[in-house]
Write a structure and sequence with these properties.
Length: 137
Amino acid sequence: MEQQEVENCWEKRLQVVAAELEGLTGRGQEIRYLISQSKMVASPSSELLQDRFRLPNCAVGVWLKPTRKEGRRCWEAYAESELILGILHLLARIFDGLAEHEVPDVPVNLLSQPPFQHIVPQSKRLGLNDLLKIYLT
């Protein structure tokens, strides 16, 4: 892979996810899409489900375990809600393996911007943007 491709990796993955989201019409399709994304997430490890990885102030259980490996950001995440789990899977598709030098380029309010603003309920954006901030710091 060329250096330029590596540097823009998350942006290219974002474009793929954005194209999928933009192809959805209606709330029913969006919900089915998020549920299908949630089905792609492996069962959480018992380590992930420890209280220290559970995000506070969430109405449903959400766990995030960010790690660094070989100069890249990785994460393991899980949610009790299928819809939130689907959104977490989309974020993992975009950001898992993010290179350290790419971190400053990621907008921390990404979920409030198109195409996510249509699929992420307003009531969930703040908490999920906070989750993204935790991953990026």
